[in-house]
Design a protein that fits this description.
Radius of gyration: 13 Å
Strand order of the largest sheet: 1-4-5
Shape: flat
Strand content: 25-35%
Helix content: 10-25%
Length: about 80
């Protein structure tokens, strides 16, 4: 379910663990917080997400740190 700040918790029937992009902790998907950010890297598995990346974090403070790093990252159209 999305929140007003753009973050969301993954709510799928699949509870396969995923890695936190900040600390590397393996956490159940239902406990992760995610945020979609602009990213100029292409996505090989699904071209619908070219120009975007989902950040996964085990807690909101980790997601805030990850998002801050992406705010400073340049978006290079040629990379797409």
């Amino acid at each position: 379910m999305a929140r007003a700040d753009g973050t969301a918790r993954i709510d799928s029937g699949d509870d396969a663990p995923e890695l936190c992009d900040e600390c590397g902790l393996l956490a159940p998907a239902r406990e992760l917080v995610v945020l979609r950010v602009p990213d100029s890297s292409p996505v090989d598995t699904d071209p619908r997400f070219d120009g975007e990346r989902l950040l996964h974090a085990c807690c909101e403070p980790h997601l805030v740190r990850l998002a801050a790093g992406y705010r400073r990252r340049p978006f290079v159209v040629e990379e797409l």
